[in-house]
Amino acid sequence: MTHKAPYPPFELPQRRLEVRAAEKASAATALGIVVFEGDEFPAVIGEERAAELGFTPKPGATLVLAGAEGPVTVLLGAGLHSQADLATMRNVAAALARAVPVHRALALEVPRTGLATDGIAAAFVEGAALARYVYRLGAEADDAKLDSLELVAGSALLADLTQGIKRGEVLVRAAKLARDLAGTPGGILTPTQIGKVTRELGTAAGLEVEVVDEAGLVELGCGGLLGVNLGSEEPPVMVKLVYRPEGTPTGRLALVGKGVTYDAGGLALKPGDEVHATMKNDMTGAGALFAAMTALKELGCQAEVIGYMMCTDNMPSGSALRLGDIIVMRGGTTVEVINTDAEGRLVMADALVLATEEKVDAIIDIATLTGACLRTFGVEIAGVMGNNAALVDQVKASAERVDEPVWELPLAHRYRGELTSIIADLRNMGGINAGSITAALFLNEFVGDTPWAHLDIAGTAQAPAARGWINKGTTGWGTRLLIDVALHFKA
């Protein structure tokens, strides 16, 4: 489509980051050294002098030491050796990137831990690169760029480091893509544009890409997506992605992502505050899904993965869905729309039905779904629910590995009555309480007996301030989690 003035064209930024393993830092202007509590301090400074300068090896602590020659040295606190994990390694790399913001060539000495060397390497790449990456429309911010990263260790570790670097680079690329998509204003990244991006990048990543337009959605009977789109000038699209591994798949997994490119609330208009302006991020679920699937081939995923991105905006107009209207979903379920701002569950329900028709082994959906989840868990933890404990446990395990925390809420069927309508099969909204649970119960109506897990990322999709490897703004949260779930998926 032709962009209306004054919108600029949508362009993904060009990125360059050279990462390599080396026995000695050669190009870096700043060198990070990890210091654990109780360990001997590096030769560059004694423990007593470091303490005088305010440094102790607590997690997140940093001390920048500028010498007359060579790179700046940065001490990086890592806490107790016994408690070190890959999240610790990811965070010390992020701390280095933040401690010396003007340095664009960094190096990190690989510490001795009980952790796998390739895992440390991947975590270092993720931490440094994602902490530095700030999206500006069409470009990386000049003050956040990182040109090179060297991981320094003995020659015996270089092969494992190189392997981990390759994996880290793929994960970073995917997470950046998700941040870019979620951070682009809805007037620029329209559903039509999402179709173009997924065709281009998805095909290049070895995915089968099908973009279903409005006419196709009508034929499929996707009344949820079509209903939410009624008030918009922009047509909706459903993007179906398929990743097929070489050889016999170890299982078939479906992913469903909410892709509301801008959520004004429809006729249930949101308040005119700053939160309204962040509603461009309401497609974070779909963005994370797509970004994750672009990484599967490079990482050698052995499961077959089918993705559904349900894309529209949710706008008020004379043609918009009215409160009290009834729509017919894929599969024939009728829904009374009590609140047009509870639109995510409507667009996703169509895709959940389509996924069950594929006879997959499991379905995972991901969505910025409820403010109730944000109020429950804040901005650092996502909610997870589901109808299958084993699948939910797989999601939890992946969340732990990639440091994208989740907490399980009960799929409490005692609240199912709140979704009962007297004139349709369902209402799209429960009462004023337990909103995250009733939203999940609504989705549960569309998955049948298929094992299913639901990720509510309303809080984690947007960060109010930088922390660790996450920057202020859209986070791309869930990308790395979905990659990990797919790589470890067990039917």
Summarize the structure.
This protein is of the alpha/beta class and 491 residues long.
- Largest beta-sheet characterization: 8 strands, mixed
- How helix-rich are the residues, as a percent range? 25-40%
In CATH, what is the homologous superfamily of the largest domain?
A: Zn peptidases
- Per the principal axes of the C-alpha atoms, what is the gross shape? elongated
The helix count comes to 14
Question: Strand share of the residues?
Answer: 15-25%
- What strand line-up does the widest sheet have? 9-10-12-11-15-19-16-17
Number of strands: 21
Write the layout of secondary structure elements.
Blueprint lengths: L17 E5 L7 E8 L9 H6 L9 E4 L6 E9 L5 H14 L5 E5 L7 H16 L2 E2 L2 E2 L7 E5 L5 H26 L7 H14 L3 E5 L1 H7 L2 H6 L8 E7 L8 E12 L10 H4 L6 H11 L9 E11 L11 E3 L5 E3 L7 H14 L4 E6 L3 H7 L4 E5 L2 H14 L3 E3 L17 E2 L7 H10 L7 E5 L5 E2 L9 E2 L4 H10 L3
Parallel strand pairs: 1-8, 2-4, 2-5, 5-8, 11-12, 11-15, 14-18, 15-19, 16-17
Antiparallel strand pairs: 3-4, 6-7, 9-10, 10-12, 13-14, 16-19, 20-21
Write out key terms for the chains shown.
2 domains; eight-stranded mixed β-sheet; single chain; 21 strands; Leucine Aminopeptidase, subunit E, domain 1; alpha/beta; Aminopeptidase
